[in-house]
Design a protein that fits this description.
The complex is a heterotrimer of chains A (about 375), B (about 325) and C (about 525). Chain B has 13 helices and two strands, in the order ααααααααααααββα. Chain B has one domain (about 5-240). Chain B is mainly α and about 325 residues long. Chain C has about 525 residues and is α/β, with parallel strands linked by helices. In chain C, the strands form four sheets. In chain C, strands 6-7-8-3-9-10 form a six-stranded mixed beta sheet, sandwiched between helices. The two termini of chain C are about 45 Å apart. Classes of the chains: A mainly alpha (about 375), B mainly alpha (about 325), C alpha/beta (about 525). Chain C: Belongs to the ABC transporter superfamily.
Chain lengths: ~375, ~325, ~525
């Protein structure tokens, strides 16, 4: 069969899916009595028209890079980690504990401690589902869903009963000490002479996320572990023939995945909120699924898709502020992106393949 | 604990277990036909919203139920299109459906009612009233049996009885009819059904449609039976608990009744007590809330009775020799 | 010449005596034309064999007849009438039943439930089950087709499962029965039983189409035989008027090389020593029941046997894929059979290379490029590493280019995904990967399955070259010809045991066949 060129597979199909998702979203906006073009304009100016908007866009994108990479690494191992939400909230717990309990002298050291601890907690929360999948064959999709709920209950318990400062009614930890406050993007860019709003939550974690994109790329395509993860993800039987150990690879892939999700907490818990609140992840774990699908599990694709979703989030907030369109529009767009780039991939792909096959025959 | 307290807890067990039971049976039909469905939550949510909206507008709860079923069927159609027609990933499709319902219900709710995603409260014929079974009033004063019959068995809304009736009906349909045989076969080995000259796609769509109807009932019950109207995210993870119950029930109808009632019981307990003091050991309410999920993980781990899902589950059917 | 023969030999049959006639059937899968303008006539009440190599297009043709695929062109006549068969339902209605190579049974259903599936009477099961129970009893009596109607499929032997498939077809009133490679999974005794059943069916006026690549079966049971080669029907002849040699020539298109030219073996020290090797599968069933064998340097030991008698498990446990018990020594060093070092990596480090039987599912990753597949199993080799962290992909590609050139893999593009190569070229890539490691012991299973003739010769030569370089080779094949022509010694496996050893110079197919059927070794051990 005449195959599509790789660029069509990597770019054309996702772009088409995205277009369809946006077209349907426009119909939805139109149906609720708003003007899709105006809405789009508002979103673009709100999210990308000022350094303030960019700051929020990049803040959200940072979250989604972490969770998107988490899902992508697991995808490469043929595992669907739907538990980014729980792993990120456990990461938040780790970050909160390390920020509150260790007297950090400087933010840079605190950042290292938080990265290690957040990743560790996230990885640990992924470890049991991974182990159950590897050793007992328990379906990882179901176990990670269950672990999201268990994480929510656990954090609820800890925040209400243990971590809440005395006298506070709010189920949240105390504020982290000022030494742990991360420099914002405005400060960093300002230091090198680029004017950027200082009142946005974007912070140094953005660079951490970018570094993670590069590191994941190196891991997947340049290291032996990545080679083994990809081979195992394509065929477990063949992997065993090649002497690749399923249990080990499942564990490694899920630990890395959970660790990446847990690292998200450095951005939202440490960089933005400066304390751990209930439901701190706010669905970013699930958006990671859309981001990974959209980005075809490639770190660069994840990077682009994370920016896109960051834009949607900030733009959606602006929409809710200035029009009658509620924020939930973003959830709908997100659903449509997952639907078309993920589940209905064949619907978009088959006509494209057919066109290429026809063009290929025509050329001969 | 006196009898009244026990009866009250069991009574709310039934009320809280009913949506789980309907959703669990819905998942059972879908998964027995080889279509994994983690979109139960979204279907229920869509159904809850549209049933409340329709019941409010028409003032007729049964029209509300019909609208709820319609909404869930639409979601099922998307799931079927993605996972049967286009052989997409069933899990991803389910995730998409959950988000779609979560977003659309608020979007449309805000557009129609401008109450921040809620529907107006339902009153009168727009919601289900309890049904007093025959002889309940008369028997009420009889010791033990009277209160049990009056409190526990009588006095529920119509959909509770529908849900319970669905259990034997489902069992009969699955194990005693041609359709059930084919449905189970499609979930185990679709090639066997295909080569026998029966359409795999047809059976799978039928199963997904049944799943839609049942989740429609579940959602309608939430909004018009258990509560009086729709509120944002009102399913609150019940679709996932139903999924957990389905695994707990090993994909069997009668077990599904047991599993959903157990999970309903846990919910009833945690609604009633903040903390449970068991002779010095205090069990926090959060533990009770997490217990269904913990139990399901334990079952999945296979340490207590292995749950084997249908063999062809999650796999799109592609013809091959 | 083939066309002449077809006209010459096949008597112009009266149309009503024909069960099936296919005219001008063509079918393509993408650029691959699986069937090219095929015409064939099948007489009513006959057993008609269709023979051809793997990939000749036999199964595709029968799948078209059963409505599983749609032909791109051509017509199907059933009983003289033009009958379009767009789906399996139509085929069943036209009286066609098919027994697929891979059974289409629901494992956790009973025999009865499987039989009625799709042929139920009415909406409720009970009457259908009762009717089927009676019908099955009748069929059992008539055709030696006894099966417990209430047994679950997963508890039945393969032979019994096949009977259920035949019963399914007969229950649907099939007049025409197509069997696709039915004996591949059967013991000789089961195969004999099957043939008795088929003869009984013929006596009752049923028409049977038997697809196989085994000449012996064709000669034994068919009335007429059609030969397919590369998607085309090359001839149809009366079985009584032909010979295995002629059929083989028609299948392959030229004289078959029944013997490979090879120098006599010069066996050296013992490389592999296996004692009392036992393997259980995941269900706890013992698949290897105490294997003892040795392979010496410079020697090819061929393992013959019907598929499914433990050969795969033997390769898997030696290759580190499956766990086992007993003793295996390589160059005098005991191998770990069940512990931490019983994996493919340890085996490769110890000098065992493995060309697996299932090339597409074990031997390579179809979505990986050629160069990624060349690293498969050898991804830890120092020469493929740039430093402690990174792999040296450029070195790997260079090495792949070299291997592809030496083994004449076409197209010689190392960045192409494995799935885009033909079966023969995929196999050459795997053989290159494994042999170029210069292993002490080569395990090689079904080396030429689904491989074109040219590649077969090439691969055989490579195996012999390795032997002549003083290495040990353990060869597993279900093709007796291959075993006979390559091996220096032959071991025959049956039911997880070795029935005996033979010298290929002094044995023949009949002798080996008896051992393969589990008849005790009377000639004495080698």
């Amino acid at each position: 069969m005449q195959k599509m060129p790789p660029w069509a597979d990597a770019l054309l199909v996702p772009l088409l899916s995205l277009l369809i998702a946006f077209a349907i979203s426009s119909v939805v906006i139109f149906a609720i009595g708003e003007n899709p073009v105006e809405a789009m304009k508002l979103m673009v100016t709100g999210a990308l028209g000022s350094s303030y908007g960019w700051g929020y866009t990049l803040y959200y994108a940072t979250n989604f890079m972490f969770t998107g990479l988490a899902v992508a690494v697991a995808f490469h191992a043929g595992l669907f980690n739907i538990g980014g939400e729980g792993q990120a909230s456990l990461g938040g717990l780790g970050v909160a504990l390390v920020c509150l309990m260790v007297p950090w002298p400087h933010w840079s050291l605190a950042l290292i401690g938080a990265v290690v601890c957040g990743a560790l907690f996230g990885a640990l929360w992924a470890a049991l589902p991974a182990w159950l999948q590897a050793k007992r064959g328990s379906h990882i999709v179901i176990t990670t869903i269950m672990f999201n709920f268990i994480a929510a209950s656990l954090l609820n318990y800890l925040l209400v009963n243990m971590l809440r400062p005395v006298g506070s009614m709010d189920p949240a930890t105390a504020r982290f000490p000022a030494e742990t406050n991360l420099p914002g993007l405005g400060e960093i860019l300002g230091a090198v002479g680029i004017p950027f709003s200082t009142s946005t939550p974007a912070n140094v974690s953005l660079f951490l996320a970018l570094a993670c994109c590069v590191l994941v790329w190196v891991l997947i395509w340049r290291t032996r572990l990545g080679y083994q993860i990809r081979a195992f993800g394509k065929s477990e039987k063949a992997a065993v023939y090649a002497g690749i150990r399923p249990v080990r690879i499942t564990m490694y892939a899920m630990l890395i995945s959970g660790g990446l999700a847990g690292m998200m907490a450095v951005n939202n818990v440490m960089g933005e909120a400066n304390r751990l609140v209930l439901n701190s992840v706010e669905g970013a774990g699930f958006i990671g699924i859309a981001v990974a699908l959209m980005g075809r599990s490639h770190p660069f694709g994840v990077f682009l898709a994370a920016i896109l979703f960051g834009f949607l989030y900030q733009g959606g907030a602006e929409l809710a502020l200035w029009t009658k369109i509620p924020r939930e529009l973003i959830t709908v767009i997100q659903a449509l992106v997952i639907l078309f780039t993920g589940a209905l991939d064949n619907m978009v792909r088959q006509p494209v393949e057919w066109l290429f096959a026809r063009a290929g025959r025509g050329a001969k | 604990m006196d009898l009244t307290t026990v009866l009250q807890i069991l009574d709310s067990t039934i009320r809280l277990g009913t949506p789980l039971l309907l959703a669990c049976l819905a998942g059972l039909f879908s998964e027995r036909a080889g279509i994994f469905d983690i979109g139960l939550e979204g279907k229920m949510l869509a159904a809850a919203f549209l049933s409340a909206a329709a019941a409010f507008v028409t003032g007729d709860v049964w029209l509300g139920v019909a609208a709820g079923i319609f909404a869930a069927l639409l979601m099922s159609a998307i799931h079927g299109l993605a996972s049967i027609t286009f052989r997409g990933n069933q899990l991803i499709s389910g995730v998409a459906i959950n988000f779609l319902a979560s977003g659309l219900t608020v979007l449309l709710g805000q557009y129609w009612f401008a109450l921040g995603g809620r529907t107006p409260s339902l009153t009168g014929d727009a919601r289900f009233a309890p049904i007093t079974l025959w002889g309940a009033e008369a028997l009420r004063e009889v010791p033990v049996i009277g209160p049990i019959y009056y409190e526990l068995i009588s006095g529920h809304t119509a959909l509770v009885y529908v849900a319970v009736a669905m259990v034997p009906l489902s069992a009969w349909l699955l194990y005693r009819t041609r359709f059930g045989l084919r449905l189970r076969a499609v979930g185990e080995n679709p090639a066997a059904v295909d080569t026998a000259g029966v359409s795999v796609v047809g059976i799978r769509f039928a199963a997904v449609a049944i799943c839609g109807v049942l989740t429609g009932l579940a959602g309608a019950y939430l909004a018009t039976g258990l509560s009086a109207g729709f509120v944002k995210e009102m399913t609150a993870g019940r679709g996932y608990i139903a999924l957990a119950a389905l695994i707990f029930a090993k994909w069997r109808p009668w077990y599904a009744l047991g599993a959903t009632m157990l999970f309903g019981f846990l919910e009833a307990i945690s609604n009633r007590y903040q903390n449970i003091d068991l002779g010095g050991i205090v069990i926090p309410v959060q533990f009770m809330q997490a217990l269904p999920y913990i139990l399901t993980v334990v079952i999945l781990a296979g340490f207590v009775g292995k749950a084997t899902p249908p063999r062809a589950g999650g796999e799109p059917y592609v013809k091959e020799r | 010449m083939a066309a002449e023969r077809q006209q010459g030999r096949q008597a112009a049959a009266a149309p009503d005596s024909l069960a099936i006639e296919l005219r001008g059937i063509s079918k393509s899968f993408g650029p691959v034309q699986a069937n090219k303008d095929i015409s064939i006539q099948v007489r009513r009440g006959s057993i008609h064999g269709i023979i051809g190599e793997n990939g000749a297009g036999k199964s595709t043709l029968m799948s078209i007849l059963y409505g599983f695929y749609r032909a791109d062109a051509g017509e199907i006549y059933i009983g003289g009438r033009l009958t379009p068969i767009p789906d399996s339902q139509s085929a069943i209605r036209a009286g066609i039943g098919m027994v697929f190579q891979h059974f289409k049974l629901v494992q956790n259903f009973t025999v009865l439930e499987n039989v009625i599936l799709g042929a139920e009477e009415g909406r409720l099961l009970r009457p259908s089950l009762a009717k089927a129970r009676k019908a099955l009893a009748d069929l059992a009596r008539e055709y030696e087709l006894e099966v417990d109607p209430d047994a679950r499929i997963e508890d039945l032997s393969v032979g019994h499962q096949q009977r259920v498939e035949i019963l399914k077809a007969l229950y649907r009133q099939a007049d025409i029965l197509i069997l696709d490679e039915p004996t591949g999974v059967l013991t000789p005794a089961e195969a004999d039983h099957l043939f008795r059943i088929l003869k009984g069916l013929r006596e009752q006026g049923k028409t049977i189409i038997l697809i196989t690549h085994k000449l012996r079966e064709i000669m034994e049971i068919t009335d007429t035989v059609s030969v397919m080669r590369r998607g085309q029907m090359t001839a149809t002849v009366q079985t009584a008027e032909t010979s295995p040699e002629e059929l083989a020539e028609l299948m392959v298109g030229r004289k078959v090389l029944l013997r490979v030219d090879k120098a006599p073996a010069i066996p050296g020290r013992t490389v592999l020593k296996v004692e009392n090797l036992r393997v259980r599968d995941e269900n706890g069933v013992e698949r290897l029941k105490g294997i003892d064998l040795t392979v010496r340097a410079g020697e090819i030991l061929g393992i013959a046997g019907v598929a499914g008698n433990g050969q795969s498990e033997l390769l898997e446990v030696l290759g580190g894929i499956a766990r086992g018990a007993g003793s295996v020594q390589l160059n005098g060093v005991e191998l770990d059979l069940s512990g931490k070092h019983s994996d493919g990596q340890s085996r490769r480090l110890q000098g065992i290379a493995h060309v697996p039987e299932d090339r597409q599912h074990l031997g390579m990753i179809m979505d990986f490029t050629a160069w990624e597949n060349v690293a498969f199993g050898y991804h830890n080799e120092p020469e493929y590493q740039k430093n402690a962290l990174l792999m040296d992909n450029e070195a790997l590609r260079e090495d792949t280019r070299r291997k592809m050139e030496r083994f004449d893999v076409r197209p010689p593009d190392c960045t192409l995904a494995a799935k885009n190569f033909s079966g023969g070229n995929q196999q050459k890539l795997i053989v290159a990967r494994e042999i170029e490691r210069n292993p002490d012991l080569l395990l090689i299973g079904q080396p030429t399955r689904g491989v074109d003739i040219g590649a077969i010769e090439f691969i055989h030569k490579q195996i012999l070259a390795l032997r002549d370089a003083g290495k040990a080779v353990l060869l597993v094949s279900v093709e007796l010809d291959e075993i006979m022509s390559l091996s220096d010694r032959i071991a025959v496996m049956f039911d997880g045991r070795i029935m005996g050893f033979r010298d290929p110079a002094t044995t023949d197919e009949r002798d080996l066949g008896l051992l393969m059927a589990g008849v005790d070794d009377v000639k004495g051990a080698a």
